[in-house]
Design goal:
It contains 10 helices and 6 strands, in the order ααβαβααβαβααββαα. It has 247 residues and is an alpha/beta fold. The protein has one domain (7-233): Rossmann fold (3-Layer(aba) Sandwich).
């Protein structure tokens, strides 16, 4: 997605104007239409480690919706949001992440107020309960929320994260990856406790199989989902390529 303003015009906008502009740009360029007042809007929110295959799963889901001629959702992805900034480069990802998260929240607000179906592509590892609060806001707005936990082993997800670094130049800090592994599980557990009795909330587990990103095992069985949430991630032996190169 590209701005329809020049870099100079964009730079002259205030921080608040930039958030509003990018949020509206995402909604308008999605091709989505507001959900009929007599129907319930749907939000699909991904959860999972960086490199677990969340984006690829949503790609498959979006294609299936298109094939079935469903109204396309507004797809909200931090990686796409930061890429809109004219001075963004993948190596500077962490410099843009905070402002990108603010735009992401604004985009969700715009889509929610307009009653658009949404796909929120993220890790669900926000600190201070932000991820769980986002679910609550959507439920309060009358959405049906499906939280999709995309699981892969930490060592495999980290391998794909490093592979993406080589391909795009975008570095993901190993310390941040490990923190995500903890807060992700904490947030999933909290969401299960808070919303399990809400009929408009559901959680699905997607487990990567041997043919990665093309073959998934999907279940909504509560006992099996709980088993994977309690499994936790083994991140103790993960190594950063940068660390290895310095020894």
């Amino acid at each position: 997605m590209k701005l329809d303003l020049s870099a100079d015009e964009f730079a002259k906008l205030s921080g608040e104007q930039k958030k509003k502009y990018i949020a509206n740009l995402f909604v308008q360029s999605s091709g989505a239409k507001p959900v009929d007042p007599l129907s319930t809007p749907v939000a699909v929110i991904t959860a999972g480690l960086p490199g677990a295959g969340k984006t690829e799963f949503l790609d498959t889901l979006a294609k299936n919706m298109t094939d079935l001629r469903f109204n396309p959702p507004v797809r909200i992805d931090l990686d796409e949001i930061v890429g809109v900034y004219p001075d963004y480069t993948p190596k500077d990802y962490y410099k843009f992440r905070d402002r990108g998260n603010l735009v992401l929240e604004r985009t969700i607000d715009v889509a929610r107020r307009g009653r658009y179906n949404v796909f929120i592509d993220g890790t669900f590892s926000g600190s201070s309960g932000a991820s769980v609060k986002g679910v609550a806001r959507l439920l309060d707005a009358g959405y049906r929320v499906n939280l999709v936990y995309v699981y892969d082993e930490a060592k495999v997800a980290w391998m794909y994260t490093m592979k993406r670094r080589l391909e795009t130049g975008r570095k993901v800090d190993l310390g941040g990856f490990k923190r995500s592994a903890k807060t992700l599980i904490d947030n999933l557990s909290d969401a299960r406790k808070r919303f399990s009795k809400n009929s408009e909330f559901s959680i699905s587990l997607v487990v990567q199989k041997e043919l990665r990103d093309k073959d998934f095992y999907i279940t909504t069985d509560n006992d099996e989902i709980d088993k994977f949430i309690k499994l936790r991630y083994n991140v103790d032996n993960l190594k950063d390529n940068d660390d290895q190169e310095t020894h």
